[in-house]
Specification:
Length: 330
Amino acid sequence: MGIQFSLMAVVALVLVAFLGVKVAGLDYFFGVLIPYIAIFTFIAGFIYRVLGWARSPVPFRIPTTAGQQHSLPWIKPNKFDNPYTKWGVFVRMALEILLFRSLFRNTKMELHEGPKITYHWEKWLWLAALAFHWSFLIILVRHLRFFTEPVPGMIHLTERLDGFLQLGLPGIYITDLLFLVAVTYLFIRRVIIPQMRYISLPADYFPLFLLLAIGITGVLMRYFTKVDLLKIKELAIGLVTFHPTAPEGIGVLFYMHLFLVSTLFFYFPFSKLMHLGGVFLSPTRNLPNDNRMVRHINPWNYPVKTHTYEEYEEHFRDKMIEAGLPVEKE
Ligand code: HEM
């Protein structure tokens, strides 16, 4: 159900852009207004969500620990899987964000007859996630060539490295292949592993189809049909300099690509894709596990009115003696 629904939604988006531009001639609407609305929603929504997390109190240390804690001098602590210094946390976060370390530690558990539990090496998800996120990032960096004039050398360098295979004309970018293969793998994995399929919702399939459609329209534009890149650059520069124009004759495929990208940006703050911002604010990752070294005082502590035993006895001594109860002070 979730699959069909998400697929239909993405197909509908493509159709809307096609009809809107090809039939209704709404170039300006799809080339300027929609991208502005999308980017505004993305930025405002992103900030709103991050502020929401940043405002949530974290009164306790709750790091997930995945190694020996720092304790006695002769026991070797695991500095990065159970960090107890800010530096350790920094390295842990960097490993997590750049290399998805926690996913790397993933294993597959199976229950066999006996009953017997086995754990398998399982690195495919990690590999596909890494390929997907890194190629996405590099594609985005390469796209900056549309939005900058003159184009910074760093972007040209990224293009040259990415296209070093020099296969065909125009040269094939490795990231285009990796992106499409990785997203396809992530989708197939969800469908063929029964447990994964069981827990998957439209919110899981929709972003995958959306990304796949963005990749496919992009690849079609670059390798199969021609779009007017000069005019596209004019539109892109117009957007970032706030002098928007929608030049005529760009080609409808570009508008499909742009509409899908706009949908992605618009949808982002409301979706699980917000893990982009959330990972930095995750208290299970960004807190040092230093409970044994530092006394953490609950920031909400307020002076509590107490009634000690001494005070109690002072109050009731006569009655206690009368009742034959033992007292500390006669
Ligand atoms: C989430 C953001 C985006 C993703 C993932 C994405 C993805 C892709 C991919 C995979 C390609 C294939 C060729 C290549 O890698 O260069 C491509 C091409 C292209 N994209 Fe995007 N794109 C995004 C945003 C945009 C935006 C905002 C524009 C607006 C200027 C744009 C315009 C183009 C154009 C004109 C091409 C054809 C390039 C050529 O013929 O060399 N894309 N896109």
